[in-house]
Amino acid sequence: MGVTSSEESGSEISCGWRVVAASALGVTCGVTAVPIYTVGAFVAPLQQEFGWSRGEIQAATVFAYLAVVVAGPLAGGIADRHGARVVALWSIVGIALGVASAAALTHSLAGLYAAYALIGVLGAGTAPGIWTRAISGWFDRRRGLALGLTLMGTGIFATFGPRYVTWAIETFGWRGGYLALAVLPLVIVLPAALAWFRERPVSAIREAAAETSSAASGLDLAAALRTPSLWLLMVTFLMFSTVISGVIGSFIPMLTDSGYTPAEAAATAGVIGLAVMAGRVAVGLMLDRVAAPILSAIVMSLPALACALWAGSGGGSAAPILAAVLVGLAGGAEFDLVAYMAARYFGLTHYGKITSVLFSAIIAGGALGPALFGYSFDAFGGYGQVLAASAAIFVVAGAAQLVLLRWSAPSLVRP
Q1: Is the distance from CB of 330 to CB of 244 less than 8 angstroms?
Q2: Whose CA is closest to 387, among 257, 233, 197?
Q3: pLDDT tens, 43-63?
Q4: Backbone φ/ψ region at 277: left (φ over 0), alpha (ψ -120 to 50), beta
Q5: What is the signed CA dihedral for 159, 164, 170, 173, rounded to 10 degrees?
Q6: How far apart are CA 368 and CA 372, in angstroms?
Q7: Residue 279 phi/psi, 5° resolution?
Q8: What is the helix (H) or strand (E) element at residue 3, kind and residue range?
């Protein structure tokens, strides 16, 4: 007698939950979360210490994420050949060293950028593509939920990261803030990854694929780059990531400009993290039931309302909370959607390389966004202009997702 869908799902969860837990912690303290969610907390103390402008400080994330863009595909290729575990373990130590190096900053702005670039290079193996490679091998029918739970890690960090770093800066100074941040991957992630993070044997993936008709093999990177779907995903998620990271990275400065204390601003920004976690799980559940392009179009358009609300209210008392919720819900979806669609469109054999390219587009946007917002503030004395432009970009990127329905393979659009 054949195995039922519920039995397959139960087997996936029972065998893979430890991998999900370790991967979620890895994403929590990974390279896509740490720079973007903490840069706002360091703006004021670094301005006071060195006299750098807001745009110059927030531009540090450009160097962090461009370094990931360069190093990420290399890490993905190594993971495809030698396994994700070895890449993840080395990168957990690497990102800690990179963050700690920022504590040694002098008056050289180049030193700030070099430290953040080091975070990106050494921490490239903590990017979501490495963790989701293992998840996609363990899960098929419940893959959306598993990815949502794994990628919820960025929401976890967005919730406690700004408060933790703000507390560390107020207690130990900004240098102590960087050192306190560097400790997290070693204390939280490394033990869990050593104990629980494993990839499913290739033979088991192929056997499961034969039973569920899910393609364990698939396109290589060269073939994927010849498909219009890959390029549309890259361009639209680059657009989306640029503006969403700009909003998130500037949230604390926008609040302090409105009269909030640093602690109050960090606590309010923490709402983004709660919304990210909710968005991760909700989108993960829906991905197992709803066509991904339709879901993507909806969630990518949500922050347009947040931008319009914030720009129109001047940061009034209710606007920051609602804006944080809308931004967090949408920000919680991008990695879920890319990880899910990459597996459905292109298969798992070259998943590491292909997702590294797609995640590089997201990461490049994450690098550009905070800097663009910072320089816009320097140029215009406020965020009104960049928020209006961001609202339009959210709408365009969301609407473009619907084009994917014309190119979708049956395995993508089915529940």
Answers
A1: yes
A2: 257
A3: 889 999 999 988 788 888 889
A4: alpha
A5: -130
A6: 6
A7: -65, -40
A8: none
Residues 71-130: tens digit of each pLDDT: 888 888 888 888 889 999 999 999 999 999 999 988 889 999 999 999 999 999 998 888
Residue entry with tokens 């991760």: 280
Name the residue type at position 236: T
Q: Which of 341, 327, 155, 390 is nearest to 234 (CA)?
A: 341
Sign of the CA dihedral with 79 first, then 82, 87, and 89 last: positive
Helix axes 351-380 and 128-138, enclosed angle (nearest 10): 140
CB 372 within 8 A of CB 38: no
Phi, psi dihedrals of residue 232, rounded to the nearest 5°: -65, -40
Token pair of 139 as six digits:
């899960």
3-state secondary structure of 225: coil
Q: How far apart are CA 31 and CA 99, in angstroms?
A: 10
Give CA–CA dist 368/72, Å, rounded. Answer: 17
What is the rounded distance in angstroms from the CA atom of residue 357 to the CA atom of residue 229?
Answer: 13
Q: Say if residue 24 is exposed, middle or buried (CB neighbours under 10 Å; 0-12, 13-18, 19+).
A: buried
For residue 315, give the amino acid letter: G
Collect the ranges in the chain with pLDDT lower than 70: 1-15, 201-218, 311-318, 348-349, 352, 407-415
